[in-house]
From TrEMBL:
Biased composition (Low complexity): 43-54
Residues covered by the KOW domain: 64-91
Identification of the protein by name: 60S ribosomal protein L27
Keyword Ribonucleoprotein on entry: yes
A family per Pfam: KOW
UniProt KW DNA-binding keyword: no
Region Disordered, residue ranges: 1-56
GO cellular component, one term: ribonucleoprotein complex
Keywords for this protein: Ribonucleoprotein, Ribosomal protein
Alphabetized PROSITE patterns for the sequence: RIBOSOMAL_L27E
Similarity-based family: Belongs to the eukaryotic ribosomal protein eL27 family.
Transmembrane region(s): none
GO process annotations (BP): translation
Amino acid sequence: MGGWAAASSWGRRRGVGPLGTVRWAEQGGRQPSGGCGVERSRPSPTHPSSPAAALQQQPKMVKFLKPGKAVILLQGRFAGRKAVIVRVFEEGTRDRPYGHCLVAGLAKYPKKVIRKDSAKKTAKKSRVKCFIKLVNFTHIMPTRYTLDVDFKDVASGGPDALSTRDKKVAACKAAKARLEERFKTGKNRWFFTKLRF
Protein backbone atom coordinates (compact mmCIF):
# COMPACT_ATOMS: atom_id res chain seq x y z
CA MET A 1 0.00 0.00 0.00
CA GLY A 2 1.35 3.43 -0.94
CA GLY A 3 2.22 6.12 1.55
CA TRP A 4 -0.81 8.31 0.80
CA ALA A 5 -3.26 5.42 0.87
CA ALA A 6 -1.71 4.15 4.10
CA ALA A 7 -2.03 7.59 5.68
CA SER A 8 -5.66 7.96 4.60
CA SER A 9 -6.59 4.50 5.86
CA TRP A 10 -4.79 5.24 9.12
CA GLY A 11 -6.81 8.45 9.38
CA ARG A 12 -10.06 6.57 8.81
CA ARG A 13 -9.16 4.13 11.53
CA ARG A 14 -8.36 6.98 13.94
CA GLY A 15 -11.62 8.82 13.16
CA VAL A 16 -10.01 11.72 11.33
CA GLY A 17 -11.90 13.27 8.38
CA PRO A 18 -10.46 14.28 5.03
CA LEU A 19 -9.37 17.73 6.27
CA GLY A 20 -7.93 16.51 9.54
CA THR A 21 -11.10 17.09 11.58
CA VAL A 22 -12.35 14.51 14.03
CA ARG A 23 -15.54 12.75 13.00
CA TRP A 24 -17.29 12.71 16.37
CA ALA A 25 -20.55 11.24 15.04
CA GLU A 26 -18.74 8.23 13.58
CA GLN A 27 -16.98 7.70 16.89
CA GLY A 28 -20.31 7.44 18.71
CA GLY A 29 -19.94 10.86 20.33
CA ARG A 30 -16.73 9.86 22.11
CA GLN A 31 -13.35 11.48 21.61
CA PRO A 32 -10.84 9.07 20.07
CA SER A 33 -7.93 8.04 22.23
CA GLY A 34 -5.30 9.31 19.78
CA GLY A 35 -3.90 12.83 19.67
CA CYS A 36 -4.68 13.66 16.01
CA GLY A 37 -6.29 16.81 14.64
CA VAL A 38 -9.19 17.93 16.84
CA GLU A 39 -12.04 20.14 15.65
CA ARG A 40 -12.86 22.68 18.32
CA SER A 41 -16.34 24.12 18.65
CA ARG A 42 -16.79 27.86 18.11
CA PRO A 43 -17.23 29.86 21.30
CA SER A 44 -20.72 31.14 21.97
CA PRO A 45 -21.34 34.94 21.95
CA THR A 46 -21.43 34.88 25.75
CA HIS A 47 -18.11 33.04 26.03
CA PRO A 48 -15.36 35.29 27.53
CA SER A 49 -13.02 34.75 24.55
CA SER A 50 -15.58 35.68 21.85
CA PRO A 51 -15.33 39.10 20.13
CA ALA A 52 -18.94 39.96 21.02
CA ALA A 53 -18.24 39.38 24.72
CA ALA A 54 -15.04 41.43 24.47
CA LEU A 55 -17.03 44.38 23.11
CA GLN A 56 -19.56 44.08 25.93
CA GLN A 57 -16.84 43.91 28.60
CA GLN A 58 -14.96 47.03 27.45
CA PRO A 59 -14.84 49.61 30.25
CA LYS A 60 -16.52 52.94 29.66
CA MET A 61 -14.24 55.86 28.87
CA VAL A 62 -13.63 58.21 31.77
CA LYS A 63 -15.12 61.67 31.32
CA PHE A 64 -12.18 63.97 31.97
CA LEU A 65 -13.47 67.09 30.18
CA LYS A 66 -15.16 68.68 33.17
CA PRO A 67 -15.93 72.27 34.14
CA GLY A 68 -12.78 73.94 35.45
CA LYS A 69 -10.38 71.98 33.22
CA ALA A 70 -7.76 74.22 31.57
CA VAL A 71 -7.51 73.73 27.80
CA ILE A 72 -5.68 75.24 24.83
CA LEU A 73 -7.61 76.08 21.68
CA LEU A 74 -6.20 74.58 18.50
CA GLN A 75 -8.35 76.10 15.76
CA GLY A 76 -9.94 79.39 14.86
CA ARG A 77 -9.40 82.99 15.80
CA PHE A 78 -8.21 82.18 19.31
CA ALA A 79 -5.89 79.28 18.41
CA GLY A 80 -3.08 78.95 20.95
CA ARG A 81 -5.04 80.77 23.66
CA LYS A 82 -5.63 79.34 27.10
CA ALA A 83 -9.20 78.77 28.19
CA VAL A 84 -11.18 77.02 30.89
CA ILE A 85 -14.22 74.80 30.39
CA VAL A 86 -17.44 76.33 31.70
CA ARG A 87 -20.00 73.72 30.57
CA VAL A 88 -19.79 70.39 28.74
CA PHE A 89 -22.30 69.02 26.22
CA GLU A 90 -21.19 65.38 25.76
CA GLU A 91 -24.12 64.24 23.63
CA GLY A 92 -24.39 67.46 21.64
CA THR A 93 -27.51 69.50 20.99
CA ARG A 94 -29.97 69.87 18.13
CA ASP A 95 -27.97 72.70 16.55
CA ARG A 96 -24.59 71.07 17.27
CA PRO A 97 -25.04 67.27 17.09
CA TYR A 98 -21.51 66.51 18.32
CA GLY A 99 -19.60 66.70 21.58
CA HIS A 100 -18.68 70.28 22.42
CA CYS A 101 -18.12 72.56 25.37
CA LEU A 102 -18.50 76.18 26.38
CA VAL A 103 -15.12 77.75 27.17
CA ALA A 104 -14.08 81.08 28.60
CA GLY A 105 -10.57 82.17 27.71
CA LEU A 106 -8.11 85.02 27.45
CA ALA A 107 -8.02 86.90 24.16
CA LYS A 108 -5.54 89.40 25.63
CA TYR A 109 -3.23 88.54 28.50
CA PRO A 110 -2.28 90.95 31.31
CA LYS A 111 1.01 92.80 30.87
CA LYS A 112 4.02 92.63 33.16
CA VAL A 113 3.76 95.01 36.13
CA ILE A 114 6.92 96.60 37.53
CA ARG A 115 7.50 98.37 40.84
CA LYS A 116 7.81 101.92 39.50
CA ASP A 117 4.40 101.77 37.75
CA SER A 118 1.73 104.03 39.19
CA ALA A 119 -1.53 102.62 40.53
CA LYS A 120 -3.35 103.77 37.39
CA LYS A 121 -0.81 102.10 35.10
CA THR A 122 -0.83 98.92 37.19
CA ALA A 123 -4.62 98.72 36.94
CA LYS A 124 -4.42 99.21 33.17
CA LYS A 125 -1.75 96.51 32.78
CA SER A 126 -3.76 94.08 34.92
CA ARG A 127 -6.76 94.13 32.58
CA VAL A 128 -7.61 91.09 30.51
CA LYS A 129 -9.72 90.72 27.42
CA CYS A 130 -11.97 87.65 27.46
CA PHE A 131 -13.80 85.52 24.96
CA ILE A 132 -16.53 82.97 25.51
CA LYS A 133 -17.52 80.48 22.83
CA LEU A 134 -18.77 76.98 22.05
CA VAL A 135 -15.95 74.74 20.80
CA ASN A 136 -15.88 71.23 19.31
CA PHE A 137 -13.97 68.68 21.43
CA THR A 138 -11.59 68.05 18.52
CA HIS A 139 -10.49 71.70 18.54
CA ILE A 140 -9.21 71.81 22.12
CA MET A 141 -6.19 70.28 23.80
CA PRO A 142 -6.92 69.43 27.44
CA THR A 143 -4.17 69.94 30.00
CA ARG A 144 -3.67 68.31 33.38
CA TYR A 145 -4.43 71.59 35.16
CA THR A 146 -7.69 72.85 36.61
CA LEU A 147 -8.80 76.36 37.44
CA ASP A 148 -11.14 76.62 40.41
CA VAL A 149 -12.97 79.75 39.28
CA ASP A 150 -16.75 79.80 39.68
CA PHE A 151 -18.33 80.34 36.24
CA LYS A 152 -21.79 78.97 37.16
CA ASP A 153 -23.59 82.28 36.64
CA VAL A 154 -21.70 83.03 33.39
CA ALA A 155 -23.86 80.76 31.24
CA SER A 156 -26.60 79.37 33.43
CA GLY A 157 -29.31 79.34 30.75
CA GLY A 158 -28.35 76.08 29.06
CA PRO A 159 -27.21 75.61 25.46
CA ASP A 160 -29.00 78.77 24.26
CA ALA A 161 -27.26 80.97 26.85
CA LEU A 162 -25.27 82.66 24.06
CA SER A 163 -28.06 82.77 21.48
CA THR A 164 -28.23 86.58 21.34
CA ARG A 165 -25.48 89.18 21.28
CA ASP A 166 -26.67 90.78 24.54
CA LYS A 167 -26.47 87.48 26.40
CA LYS A 168 -23.00 86.81 25.01
CA VAL A 169 -21.72 90.27 26.01
CA ALA A 170 -23.13 89.86 29.54
CA ALA A 171 -21.55 86.40 29.89
CA CYS A 172 -18.21 87.72 28.61
CA LYS A 173 -18.25 90.59 31.13
CA ALA A 174 -18.99 88.17 33.97
CA ALA A 175 -16.12 85.88 32.88
CA LYS A 176 -13.77 88.87 32.59
CA ALA A 177 -14.62 89.99 36.14
CA ARG A 178 -13.96 86.49 37.53
CA LEU A 179 -10.62 86.12 35.72
CA GLU A 180 -9.38 89.60 36.68
CA GLU A 181 -10.29 88.92 40.29
CA ARG A 182 -8.33 85.66 40.19
CA PHE A 183 -5.31 87.39 38.59
CA LYS A 184 -5.24 90.06 41.31
CA THR A 185 -5.18 87.42 44.06
CA GLY A 186 -1.92 86.09 42.59
CA LYS A 187 -3.16 82.52 42.22
CA ASN A 188 -2.87 80.39 39.06
CA ARG A 189 -0.23 82.65 37.50
CA TRP A 190 0.49 79.98 34.88
CA PHE A 191 -2.93 80.63 33.33
CA PHE A 192 -2.26 84.34 32.78
CA THR A 193 1.04 83.98 30.93
CA LYS A 194 1.08 83.99 27.14
CA LEU A 195 2.09 80.79 25.38
CA ARG A 196 5.23 81.15 23.29
CA PHE A 197 5.15 78.86 20.27
